[in-house]
Design a protein that fits this description.
elongated; 40% helix; 214 residues; alpha/beta; single chain; Maf protein; 7-stranded mixed β-sheet; 7 helices; disordered N terminus
């Protein structure tokens, strides 16, 4: 009797897997308008077919531009630049920045600037904002969206900061740290989407792509 129950459960599990596979949504191939290896890795992790098309745009922020408007504009401009080279494609642009006390912390200029940023962030909450833009060229639709996540840094010592900056990891990261790298040891808590902090809020991307198709 026990063996029968096991076999029956196995058959039920097989049917569930088959049914699940049959209703899985096929993800449309996208062109990622970014050279970020972190964004590409997130897309690979979730099995999203894509190609990379790095674009070069002016990322200078307007003096009166808010952080939200800034990341949304850059995401849109990256997507538009890529769309010019990939007609009839689905394009994804993204841009991420870090803010604290309404001040934007972009990528450090040098190691001194990286130290300054970590001194500002230590033992405090800050926000990570990512703007995304999806262009469905088949229907000539552009949708722009934004994700925000709050992150709490631990109380870092001078030795912590000096060591981390010496690793070189902070140098090409908005806010001067990588939550998915060595910097993870300094993060106490997050409120919101972890992947947003890495650089691509994949759930928001999924919802936005689906919206562009309807």
């Amino acid at each position: 009797m026990e063996d029968c129950r096991v076999n029956q459960t196995t058959r039920v599990d097989d049917r569930v897997r088959e049914a699940t596979a049959s209703v899985m949504i096929e993800l449309p191939r996208i062109v990622l308008a970014s050279a970020s290896p972190r964004r590409a890795e997130i897309l690979r992790t979730v099995g999203w077919p894509f190609e990379v098309l790095a674009v070069d745009i002016d990322e200078t922020r307007d003096a009166s531009e808010s952080a939200s408007a800034y990341v949304e504009r850059l995401a849109r401009e990256k997507a538009e630049a890529a769309a010019a080279h990939r007609p009839q494609s689905m394009i994804l642009g993204a841009d991420t920045t870090v803010t604290i006390d309404d001040h934007i912390l972009e990528k450090p200029f040098d190691r001194t600037d990286a130290v300054r940023m970590l001194e500002v962030l230590k033992n405090r909450w800050h926000k990570v904002l990512t703007g995304i833009a999806v262009i469905n060229q088949t229907d000539s639709r552009t949708i722009v969206a934004r994700q925000e996540t709050e992150v709490k840094f631990a109380a870092l010592s001078e030795d912590d900061i000096d060591w981390y900056v010496q690793t070189g990891e902070p140098m090409d990261k908005a806010g001067g740290y990588a939550i998915q790298g060595l910097g993870a040891r300094f993060i106490e808590e997050i409120r919101g989407d972890y992947f947003n902090v890495v650089g691509l809020p994949i759930r928001l991307v999924y919802e936005t792509v689906l919206k562009s198709l309807t």
